Amino acid sequence: MTEIKQQNTFTVATYNIHACIGTDGHFDPARIAAVIREIDADIIALQEVEHHCVDDLDLLEYLAYQTGHEALAGPTLFRETRHYGNALLTRLPLTSFKHIDLSVDKCEPRGAIEATFDVAGYELQIIATHLGLKPAERRWQVKQLLQLKSQQEAHITCLLGDVNEWLLWGRPLRWLHRHFNEQPHLATFPTRWPIFALDRIWVSPQRCQAELFVHKSNLAQQASDHLPLIARIRI
C-alpha cells in the first residue's frame, strides 16, 4: 500500500488462463505463474481456472503462492474432484466479497465475482466475470452486471473479464460502452495472431484510467490461448 499512496496509481488485469494449458497443448501452471509475475498487477481477474491439486496444492493457491497474491475463488462449475470458473488474485486489502450467479438455463454455468477493496482510503469495486457464448445469454448477463454496478456507491468501479463478444457492434458492448464510456478494441485472442478483443476492462469514472494495453511477452504467447489485458488506474 505504501507504493500506491506515493504514486497514486495501481494496476488491474484480466487473464483467461485456459486451465493452464498453453498453445503447445501442455499443462504448465508454472508458466502461467511466470506471466502473472510479469504483469505485476495489484488485482488480476482470472478465467477458466481449474480448482484442483498440483503437487498436493490447490491450483489457485499455487498461483497465489507463486506470485505473492491472496486468492479469491469464484467457481461456476462444480465437479466431484475439481471445480472450474473465475478467480481473483489480489495484493490489496479486501473489504467485501460475494459471488453472483449469471447462469442461464441449458447453458454452461456462468458467474461474476463482486469484491470491494480499500485503496489508500478509497473504495474500489471490482466486478470480474466470464460471459456466455450465446448472444441472448450475454445480453441478459450484461444487464445484471450493470444493475450490480449501479447498486454500489464506490469511488472507483472496474468491470473486467472475458466477455466473449466477437461482434464489436453487439448490444452487450454498446451497453457497456454507453455506461462506462467507450474503450479501444484491443485484440487478445488467439495469442499467436490476436484478432478478437474478447477480454475487456472498463473503469468508472473514466478519468481514473491512465493506461490500457495488452501484455504480449513471448511467455504470454505460449502460456494460454488469451493474452492478458492490463489497465493502470489513477486515484
TrEMBL record:
One of its GO terms (molecular function) is exonuclease activity. Gene3D superfamilies: Endonuclease/exonuclease/phosphatase. One of its GO terms (biological process) is GPI anchor biosynthetic process. Keywords: Endonuclease, Exonuclease, Hydrolase, Nuclease. GO terms for cellular component: membrane. Residues 13-226 form the Endonuclease/exonuclease/phosphatase domain. It comes from the Bacteria. PANTHER family: CALCOFLUOR WHITE HYPERSENSITIVE PROTEIN PRECURSOR, ENDONUCLEASE_EXONUCLEASE_PHOSPHATASE DOMAIN-CONTAINING PROTEIN. This is Endonuclease/Exonuclease/phosphatase family protein. The lineage of its organism: Bacteria, Pseudomonadati, Pseudomonadota, Gammaproteobacteria, Thiotrichales.
